[in-house]
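SAMPLE LOG
Freezer: B-3
Tube label: C17
Construct: single chain, 630 aa
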Amino acid sequence: MRFTSLTQRFSVWFMAVSLLPILVIGYSLLRVFKTEMETMVAQQVSAIADKKADQIDKDLLERVLDARALSKLKTTRQAMVEFAQVFAQSGMEAAAYHQLDVHYHDYFQRLIDEANYCDLFLVSPQGAVVYSQLHKSDFASNLFTGPYSHSGLAQVSRQVLSTLESSISDFDYYPLSGDAIVAFIAAPVMQQNKLLGILALQINNVRLWQVLTDNVGLGASGETVVARSENAHTALVMAPLTHQSDAALKRKIPLHNPQLATAIGNAILGRRGSGIITDYRGVKVVAAWRYLPRMGWGMAVKTDVEEALAPVYRVRTFSLIILGLALFAALVGAVLLGRRIVMPLQNLSHSAQEIAAGNLQQRVPPAGQDELGQLAVSFNTMAAELSDRISQQKQAQRQLEAANKELESFSYSVSHDLRAPLRHIQGYAEMLTRASSGQLSAKAQQYLETITDASMEMGQLIDDLLTFSRISRIELYENRVILDELVQDAIRGLEIAMQGRNILWKIAPLPPALGDPSLLKQVFTNLLDNALKYSRQRDLAEIEIGCAGEENGQSILFVRDNGAGFDMQYAHKLFGVFQRLHRADEFEGTGIGLATVRRIIARHGGRIWAEGAVNHGATFYFTLRLPLGG
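STRUCTURE (predicted):
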């Protein structure tokens, strides 16, 4: 069939191709709706997960604070002293012990009843349970050498004796409570900085289970899974499941199968997130995972995709009907509108070609007051705006180039103009020191030394800031880097810092990496200098360099020391500019070294993080890409 009229050809081709755009639009809308629905459900599940995590943490914190408060009561301290003395001298069968038991029984029973605890214990510093409210067989036993040395009560007691801080054990079976799943909270009983003993409280799992099994907002398939890591390959479920009521401390989730352990595996590793995954049953679910740091558990809150996205499936069926009707209407409208829109479309096409060729002054002739006329006006408006935006873009580019020149000028000023006054300050301070030798008072001499030290510190700060700013601008020259040789070079460059030090180096073989050798050397130099500085107060400084495996095709490297360490709640401040976790009079530094390391690692496509504890050293982990071919 031949068509001599453009209107006829337009009508035929419009009817032929209208099916595709209608289907694409319908599919796109359905995809958008599905995506929005998935996002909404994920946000809802995440909100529930955050609420549960907050409830659990607040409940456990309240328990810990209870134990801490009870341990500080005068009556508790008095009871601790009296029970320990009578128990050690006469044993629990003595009349004196029974008198104490009767005297304090109501006091401790009231404490237990008010907070709904299962039992209360007083433990001597030697591990003897000198008092128990229920007098079960753990009473009068020794938690360190007796039959319950592996119980949660014994573990938490040893922890308190070791740290003199309140502690909570993990939930586990306790035979003396009918194999119920319980936990123990303990706090030191102190008087004038002297350890009198330990107050321990036994709690059941009722309140925790109520939070975990509450599936309001999650639907019929909703479930909350909490688990702790048994080993590198297995996680142990800690609470009942919707689909298995006796799962607590029985059901195990294999961590070596990422398809079935995405949520729990990430949560146990301290990560948080949400999304559509496959759960431990092999079912697609919308899940949110969180880490519960107080217990070291991972938590996954989830609901089945089939239930959560049921509205999407209903809309899909309805959309197919609507799309069919829209297609029919489009086919009818094509014939009616073809003749009317051909000419304006030709004009529009011609103008578009002119603009595409660079003639931004081209405009579409007026086409009336109807939609086609409005289209012509919109097209002309678009062309004018495009011309303006291109002009603005050129102006912005010129401004950016000027800003870069100003930045270079600033760097030059910092390198030269700011250094000159510092050199004058240092020089004149030294000249003044020599010229007034023996004439100035000790305080004046101290002022001169302070001026010299401050100017030197300012010079070092300028050097560090320049280094930090240059990291983002210098070009990377990536090569295959032999990290073993690079580490040795970095250590040799720190010989001055090692003079007079007793240092034990533990350097494991490192895999090669892909990166800029000079920048990677700076990473190791900064981290090793950090380790040397913060282990300075150790008689034997131990510094370890090694590889902790791979992650997403990248090596996980680490530098570990046994120095001052840091509090993990401030770990997020380690890599900020000018962020320091120790006073300047304890450890010198400008607070820029770790920020520089993070920027170098980021430019190499890796990440860096740290783990540590106060007075127990620190470990800095970072990832680097492996070169092609290993």
